[in-house]
Amino acid sequence: MLKKVPHTYVIIFAIIILSAILTWFVPAGEYERTEKVMEDGSTKEMIVEGSYHSVEESPQTWQVFAAMFKGFVKQANIVIFILMIGGAFWIMNASKAIDVGIMAFLRYTRRLEKHKFMRKIGVNNLVMVMIMLLFSMFGAIFGMSEETIAFVIILVPLAISMGYDSITGIALVYVAAHLGFAGAVFNPFTIGIAQGLSDIPLFSGFEYRLLCWFVINAIGFTFILLYARRVKRHPEKSLMYKADAHWRDKKAELSDDFKYYTPVSGWVAYAFLLIVLILFSIKYPTTELSIGNASKTLAAVPIATGLYAILGALSLLKSVHYYILNLLAFTIIFLIIGVMGYGWYVMKIGTLFFAMGILSGIAMNADGTRITKLFIEGAKDILSAALVVGLAGGIIVILEDGKIIDTIMYRLSNSMDGVGKTGSMGIMYGIQNFLNIIIPSGSAKAALTMPIMAPFSDLIDISRQATVLAFQFGDGFTNMITPTSGVLIGALGVAKIPYDKWFRWIWPLILTLIIVGFLLLLPTLFMDLNGF
Predict the structure, then answer these.
(1) Is the pTM here over 0.85, yes or no?
(2) Could you tell me which residues come within 8 angstroms of residue 230 by beta carbon, excluding any fewer than 6 positions away?
(3) What range does the domain containing 487 cover?
(4) Rounded distance, CA 126 to CA 121, Å?
(5) Is 60 a member of any domain?
(6) Is 296 helix (H, G, I), strand (E, B) or coil?
(7) Could you report the per-residue pLDDT of 372-387, keeping only the tens digit for each?
(8) Number of domains making up the chain
(9) What is the DSSP letter of 478?
(10) What is the distance of C-alpha 359 from the center of its chain?
């Protein structure tokens, strides 16, 4: 008889305790750090080469109980982001707009299935590939990660409605974005920082990284589609079959029997937002949208405002449900403009979705008290996801306070002496994969490892570009499995997927990607590639 798998909280707290035990046996040490001014005028913290030194031991004991508090402080932006997203979407869900959208989507796919060609390739397969390709591009171009949490709330119910499970739903958005993140082409948070710290041209080596992106996506998409097909044919084979009862119950509530209407408050919400957007259009008549080191100036805000003015009015003439769906679509459009044009992060993105939720409530004629109660219900429903993010943050706190992260890095970097180019590349790659478990932040890990790895690669005749690629793969693949990632834990919490079930599902994909990643690194050692 199989023993019951511990709760996710128990697993993470056990890792905190293990990390605390390590602080008693791993010698404490630190690198000296300095600030470097980058080409764009920003400053980045860098490790001073050869500066590692021992420091006073700081073994962790009772601090394991304070780790959750400190973890919440460390991960506060993601915790609050999750709560705001949960509350906003709960308000939107109360309008039944998403239900209307899902039913409209399913009707459309059923019509497509009448065509022989579409039946042959599979309408659902085509839809899933298009969704995954979109999010993979977002991950590759501007490093979409935290933002995926907001879309999990949409994609999981959609996947359930299509006959799949919650794992398929989260794979369509979270895994797809992180496949793009791992095979990134222009990601400023990984490639941009790593290449800048390595003193090589920003986003150089584009051609080979694009090939890597295609290979990684092909493997990931195939894995997801094969699993989705198996679940479609045999739902009971899903790891989440019993646990997904929550989502299936919501699916059972779906029907075409909606009361379509447009209250006056819908027009009020439309007019109010239109005035706000016009004012923003006046303030920001043009926007410089950046993709990697390329940029183009467009009248992005005025164009989006004009489209909202037209489509918002047309949707209200049909029903308030379609207006709220229209509101969701333009929330995503302005999210893209904000991220690519103004460097938005979770605070502004969370604020954007919060405003969407409030306007949805106003549009469906809910008063302030009703909107507030709905928001609280949504935050309460998603609270467990926020709690586990704070707890996971405690792992990093213990390792940092115990002063052993730099020691681990120092010992690992010393392991590369005298093993040849291929061996050194393999060790570099392995170090990056391992470090991602304890330092899930790509930018932080770049600041820690690249000032050491880049000069070392010169000594063993490996291009700095190849070293960046090893960092990129090592940072990307294990993001999808490490319990220290607040984004992963948050997304799983929103989808109500226990970590142990997620681990059982994704480890074969991660192992495959790690092996393929190493194989993709080998040509950088023995072939003349542009930028390498």
Answers:
(1) no
(2) 237
(3) 97-255+421-451+463-526
(4) 7
(5) no
(6) strand
(7) 999 999 888 878 777 8
(8) 1
(9) G
(10) 26
